[in-house]
Amino acid sequence: MSTPASKELRPDGKPRLPPGQHLTTGWPVLHYGSIPRIDLETWRFHVWGLVEEEKSFTWEEFNALGQVTDTSDIHCVTTWSKFDNTWEGVPFRALYDAIRLKPEAKYAMIHCYGGYTTNLPLEDLLREGVLFAHSHNGQPLTKEHGWPMRLVVPHLYFWKSAKWVGGIQFLDRDRPGFWETYGYHIYGDPWKEQRYA
Ligand SMILES: Nc1nc2c(c(=O)[nH]1)N[C@H]1C(S)=C(S)[C@@H](COP(=O)(O)O)O[C@H]1N2
Ligand SMILES: [Mo]
């Protein structure tokens, strides 16, 4: 007899489906504002803040940093979860290896085309499975899901997985991003139900 997906356990013994979540097979589209217009010719990924040297990558340069494929689950704060998403793109670790951070850099703010921001500790970005994805389940991202590039942070609520990414700013302190300013939890661990502050 097979275990219902919602009762599966992770290797660390935690339930695969976090508390208060239900499984969905579709993929809802959620964002604030409208889909930004982006052109790959002028697309840039900017790195600034507490770095020894600011950098700006073109689409080709950014993708040349490295490519990885990783399968993970999505947990949205609005209570839907979607299992087994295969993402392909640039692992955060590859970006990290291509830049030089100042020792005080402990936090990051992700900046997006359209103005969205979200904050994360550096050590969370360095976890395995965190990547800047250009594809989902073998297809390029659609515009509504973040084309050409989105961040994927599988161990936190999905609002941290910023769509239409355009850069990262390194900080010495944690600062709230867009939703974090409007009452979402500063960190957002789905297994601790850190939904709202
Ligand atoms: N740039 C940007 N990224 C964003 C958002 C947004 O408003 N703007 N919303 C976040 C929220 S709240 C969620 S739940 C997910 C939804 O991603 P999806 O539309 O691909 O399901 O995107 C996140 N990334
Ligand atoms: Mo969300």
TrEMBL record:
It comes from the Bacteria. Pfam families: Oxidored_molyb (PF00174). Residues 33-179 form the Oxidoreductase molybdopterin-binding domain. Residues 1-21 are annotated as: Disordered. This is DMSO/TMAO reductase YedYZ molybdopterin-dependent catalytic subunit. It comes from Tepidiforma thermophila (strain KCTC 52669 / CGMCC 1.13589 / G233).
